[in-house]
Design goal:
Blueprint (H helix, E strand, L loop, with lengths): L1 H27 L2 H5 L20 H4 L3 H12 L14 H13 L7 E4 L8 H16 L8 H13 L9 H6 L3 H5 L5 H16 L10 H11 L6 H23 L12 H5 L10 H16 L7 H24 L15 H23 L1 H28 L21
The protein binds zinc ion.
Length: 413
Amino acid sequence: MFFKSLIGLLTQINLLFLTMVFCTSCENVDVEDSVGQNSEFARFKNVDFLSLKSDCFSLSSTHSMQFEIYQSLFLSNDSPYNFPGNLSPEKKRQLFEEIREGYFTKSVFLDQEIKKYYHNFAHAMDVMITTHVLLKSGGAVFLTQDEQAMLVLAALAHDARHTGLMNSFLIKAEHEYARKFEHESLQEKQSLLFLLGLLESKQLIPPNKDSKIRKFLSEVILFTDMKKHKEQLQKVKKVLPVVLDELRNARGDKNSDITLGTTSVDLHKGIDLSSRLDEGTRFLIGSFILHCADISNPGKDWEQSERWAVLVLNEFFTQGDFEKQNGMQVSMNCDREKTSIPESQLGFGKYIIKELYDILLQLNHEAGSQFQENFLANQLRWTNLRADEKLNGTRYLPNFRPPSIEGGWNGKE
Ligand SMILES: [Zn+2]
């Protein structure tokens, strides 16, 4: 098939290019400059300003701003997260640059045909910031300190080396990932492998398959595969009563019938359930938090929510164009001539998001209630936009506003 050989050829070029870019970027990164006296780091010294209202497009608009946020999360004296082991500040900085580089390899992957409208570094920053907010709003009570740090790092790396195409497309196109990863969770496995390789190279994890960090990262990143959504929800629903019971015990209100998920007040009171929950439950909750952050767009304010929705649909449409050009069956939601953006968002909300946010509300009341409020308001707006489409016989075609080039957008601005 034409695209099969094209992908094969471009993958080889891509690897060569990646090596060149990586070597060049290692030479060019002047770490001292980026954190020196003149840095604007003072803006982000304290991460308390980050919230679900944060505009992640603007926070990730420049390389230096992206690094400053990472620095405030992991590198400053009052950072909330510490990597396990003794990773030097220098290596932590390198880790950021290397993970970031993993999102910039796509520009030559399929030449100019596939643009990363959505699976770019701005999305990675958004998911990292949202994961942090979910933790600080109460989610952190379930996890150990090491797990919290690894979860925020996993959020940053979870889509590294993403192609901008769906796994199902890569399988149809007989892409090398399909064989390599046994036709399942292709890009999630690729991102995981990429991150584990970086961590091994810095001796942060041993090359030992039994490492706890490795197991934790595997679980949380592989569960970002949308195909595992239902499975994850079933598992979380099963452990939820036990987890909430432990929460009531830790709060000392054992006799109360009222079950309210965690809030930041629990954290301020020093409630820590990590020693009361077994490893499997903690890992599962970690994966649930990351999954909620990964598809948090419908739970953000309209401005952000609509912008991300339009971007993800544009990424799908680009795949659809490619499928049409190559005589393939066009995948669901990928035909730009037939797909209604409001309808796709209503369907996503109804079949995927609603139950996810319902469970989040039970687990983490503070974040869950904000997600719910925004989600309901957004669904109402999509409902009205869909009604307009039907009434006028037209389609909702808003201007798409991509992230900045430094945010990972590889097309024209
Ligand atoms: Zn993602």
